[in-house]
């Protein structure tokens, strides 16, 4: 059984209580760490030109673009289609025997 529990994640200096499954804790903390690191990158690049909300928006945009790029590179649907096609051919062949 995978129980849920409450953790506190800090993002951009604010703490957020989040209820998660125990096996997701490490992933959740790593995600928060990644967000905070990207915020630090924007802070070092833009200083006080951007407020926290602007930096969070830029981080969200950056991570979303990275996610979409990753999804495009790891699209398995062409392989799944080919496997289905080959499976159908094999089924048809075996039925004819």
Automatic annotation (TrEMBL):
According to its UniProt entry, one GO biological process term is:
cell division
- Keywords in alphabetical order, please: Cell cycle, Cell division
**InterPro entries assigned:** Cell_div_ZapA-like, Cell_div_ZapA-like_sf
**A Pfam cross-reference name:** ZapA
User: What is this protein's name?
Assistant: Cell division protein ZapA
Write the lineage as a comma-separated list. Bacteria, Pseudomonadati, Bacteroidota, Bacteroidia, Bacteroidales
């Amino acid at each position: 059984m995978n129980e849920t529990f409450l953790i506190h994640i800090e993002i951009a200096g604010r703490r957020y209580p989040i209820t998660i499954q125990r096996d997701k804790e490490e992933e959740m903390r790593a995600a928060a760490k990644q967000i905070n690191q990207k915020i630090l990158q924007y802070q070092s690049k833009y200083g006080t030109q951007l407020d926290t909300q602007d930096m969070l928006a830029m981080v969200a945009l950056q991570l979303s673009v990275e996610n979409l790029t990753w999804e495009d590179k790891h699209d398995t649907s062409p392989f799944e289609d080919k496997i289905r096609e080959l499976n159908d051919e094999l089924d048809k062949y075996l039925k004819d025997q």
